[in-house]
């Protein structure tokens, strides 16, 4: 009855979000197993409340959000509220063994946080093992009541969640890969709002986006895929990008959206074409030799009044290795940088960090070939602790982690050159980098060509950052900073580091706690492509992390 009452209250609040102002948003999330059929095959998947994708969280800027998560499956579970700043509330961030211990079967935990200074589209997803394959959903943060969008008000809003689908049990896929030391099997299809559309050998109706002529729609596009960066395209229509990762951008028109795992893009679509049915295509991007799921997800945009069985207007998808399309899209992204929404880029730097990212091979006596694939930052492959880092930091528990993560690569070499003769072995450790409160940080994420170069979508918990520069090849510390955009760089929480290239980001460490930085390709996170920042408390309670909640799970 308690769960039913909570849902009923949410309906009153959120069916009419413009009419009702509520400071506390309450949700009950139950992790349950749900039988689901796709690709003409049925399996049981972990979901939230039996939904795939899961329920949408609606709130306003400034609201307090309470989500009671009850674990009713056999797996340990945590959920991350991807992109939520979590100012002083790191206990609610969600990554297992970083900010909390997992929620065990039969247990529950109340995630309690406030949406401070944020409005737009984010996502939530499981943050342990590969459970986020099916445990994910949208977060929609409306502006404060009476505050308009800084773009033409749409007639309607539509959520579009992109994801991947495996016929096999996803947890079995990663378990097998871990045992063998080899790369995990790729997914079998991509999905749009949980539907694959027609694929070879299996007929499926797919998702339909219904529109009316002359109306404008705000598309809230989310990439919840585990391992694939994606292109999104609607036949015959351009859309106008107005926001990424819940930060407003200067508007620009495009026919193709490039979106990495964990990223969101808000775009205006005006239904100004002839009445009919138009193909929506979601296809992968991969500009190197790494295997990828190359099945295109098919959906349709359908105008009101379209005759039944009308043939669709088709489109061509970008080539799978269409690097220029990704660069063009990323280069157009600029912060709105208005008086109300300024781009407060740190201009002076306290910590100048240079992180090389890539993959390697380490010995593994129990693996098939006596070795295993690993991934690393500055040659450190991160080892997950058995006590949550935030707990160890808060209570000053020794032996859980060290704060000596290297600021530079241990060995300097031609990172994007021919590295076939390089030693592929990495070091291992649970190592963090310590930051004083409010210090200004610059991180250059440098791709490498060891084994294979690849595009890496990197996500920073607890902060937004400004993308001040990017390039191909090796970062030049003398000349590249001269070309940095310090006026209106895009602000986001997840950014793709180009294949055999680099990205420079800046942020202010104004959020005390322990914050994860990792590749958002789940395969690379599993292999150790991750680290953590420890941000010390500042002066007084308003610059200090809050005490842990009484129901915080224990390890």
Question: What can you tell me about this protein's structure?
Answer:
With 555 residues, this protein is mainly beta. Helices cover 8% and strands 38% of the residues. The chain has five helices and 32 strands. It has helices spanning 2-14, 170-180, 323-332, 389-394, 522-527, and strands at 24-38, 41-48, 57-60, 64-71, 79-82, 108-114, 120-126, 136-142, 156-165, 189-192, 208-211, 216-223, 229-234, 239-244, 247-254, 256-259, 264-270, 277-285, 297-303, 351-363, 371-377, 380-382, 427-429, 432-435, 440-447, 456-460, 465-472, 491-492, 494-497, 501-508, 513-519, 530-535. The strands form seven sheets. It has a six-stranded mixed beta sheet with strand order 10-9-12-17-14-15, with no helix packed on it. The protein has a six-stranded mixed beta sheet with strand order 21-20-25-30-27-28. A hairpin with a 2-residue loop joins strand 1 (24-38) and strand 2. It is globular, with a radius of gyration of 22 Å.
The biggest sheet, with number of strands, parallel, antiparallel or mixed sense and barrel status, is:
6 strands, mixed
Unreliable segments of 5+ consecutive residues: 1-20
- The counted number of beta strands is 32
Kindly provide the radius of gyration, computed on alpha-carbon positions and rounded to a whole number of angstroms: 22 Å
- Sheet-strand content, in percent, reads 35-45%
Q: What form results from the Cα inertia axes?
A: globular
Structural class category: mainly beta
For the largest sheet, list the strands in their spatial order.
10-9-12-17-14-15
Mean pLDDT: 94
- Cα distance spanning the termini: 31 Å
Helical content (DSSP H or I, runs of 4+): under 10%
Individual helix count: 5
Pfam families: Cu-oxidase, Cu-oxidase_2, Cu-oxidase_3
Enzyme class: oxidoreductase
EC number: 1.10.3.2
GO molecular function: copper ion binding; hydroquinone:oxygen oxidoreductase activity
């Amino acid at each position: 009855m308690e769960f039913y009452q909570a849902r009923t209250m949410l309906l009153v609040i959120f069916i009419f979000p413009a009419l009702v102002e509520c400071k506390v948003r309450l949700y009950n999330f139950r992790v349950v197993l749900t039988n689901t059929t796709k690709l003409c095959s049925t399996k049981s998947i972990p979901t939230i409340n039996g939904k795939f994708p899961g329920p949408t969280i609606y709130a306003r800027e400034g609201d307090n959000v309470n989500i009671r998560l009850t674990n009713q499956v056999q797996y340990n579970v945590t959920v991350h509220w991807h992109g939520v700043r979590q100012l002083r509330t790191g206990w609610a961030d969600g990554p297992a063994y970083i900010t909390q211990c997992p929620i065990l079967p039969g247990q529950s935990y109340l995630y309690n946080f406030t949406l401070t200074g944020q409005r737009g589209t984010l996502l939530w997803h499981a943050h342990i093992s590969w459970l986020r394959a099916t445990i994910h959903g949208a977060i929609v943060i409306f502006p404060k009541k009476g505050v308009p969008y800084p773009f033409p008000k749409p007639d309607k809003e539509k959520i579009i969640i992109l994801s991947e689908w495996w016929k096999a049990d996803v947890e079995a896929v990663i378990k097998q890969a871990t045992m063998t030391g080899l790369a995990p099997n790729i997914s079998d299809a991509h999905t749009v709002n949980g539907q694959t559309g027609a694929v070879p050998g299996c007929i499926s109706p797919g998702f339909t986006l219904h529109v009316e002529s002359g109306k404008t729609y705000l598309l809230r596009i989310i990439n919840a895929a585990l391992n694939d960066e994606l292109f999104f395209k609607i036949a015959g229509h351009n859309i106008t990008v107005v926001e990424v990762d819940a930060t407003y951008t200067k508007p620009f028109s495009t026919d193709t959206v490039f979106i990495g795992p964990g990223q969101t893009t808000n775009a205006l679509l005006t239904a100004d074409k002839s009445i009919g049915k138009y193909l929506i295509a979601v296809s992968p991007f991969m500009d190197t030799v790494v295997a990828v799921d190359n099945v295109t997800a098919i959906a349709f945009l359908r105008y009101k009044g379209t005759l039944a069985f009308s043939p669709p207007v088709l489109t061509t998808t970008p080539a799978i290795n269409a690097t220029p399309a990704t660069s063009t899209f990323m280069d157009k992204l600029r912060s709105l940088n208005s008086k109300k929404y300024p781009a407060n880029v740190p201009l002076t730097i306290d910590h100048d960090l240079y992180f090389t990212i890539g993959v390697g091979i380490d010995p593994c006596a129990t693996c098939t070939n006596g070795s295993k694939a690993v991934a690393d930052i500055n040659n450190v492959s991160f080892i997950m602790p058995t006590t949550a880092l935030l707990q160890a930091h808060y209570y000053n528990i020794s032996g859980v982690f060290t704060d000596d993560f290297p600021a530079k690569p241990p060995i300097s070499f031609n990172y994007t050159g021919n590295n076939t003769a390089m030693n592929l072995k990495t070091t291992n450790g649970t190592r963090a980098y310590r930051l004083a409160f409010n210090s200004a940080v610059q991180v250059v994420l440098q791709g490498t060509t060891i084994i294979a170069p690849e595009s890496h979508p990197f996500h920073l918990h607890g902060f937004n950052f400004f993308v001040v520069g990017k390039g191909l090849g090796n970062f030049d510390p003398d000349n590249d900073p001269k070309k940095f955009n310090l006026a209106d760089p895009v602000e986001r929480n997840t950014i793709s580091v180009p294949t055999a290239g680099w990205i420079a980001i800046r942020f202010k460490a104004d959020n005390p706690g322990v914050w994860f930085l990792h590749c958002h390709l789940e395969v690379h996170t599993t292999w150790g492509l991750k680290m953590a920042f420890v941000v010390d408390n500042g002066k007084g309670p308003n610059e200090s992390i809050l005490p842990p909640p009484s129901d915080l799970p224990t390890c």
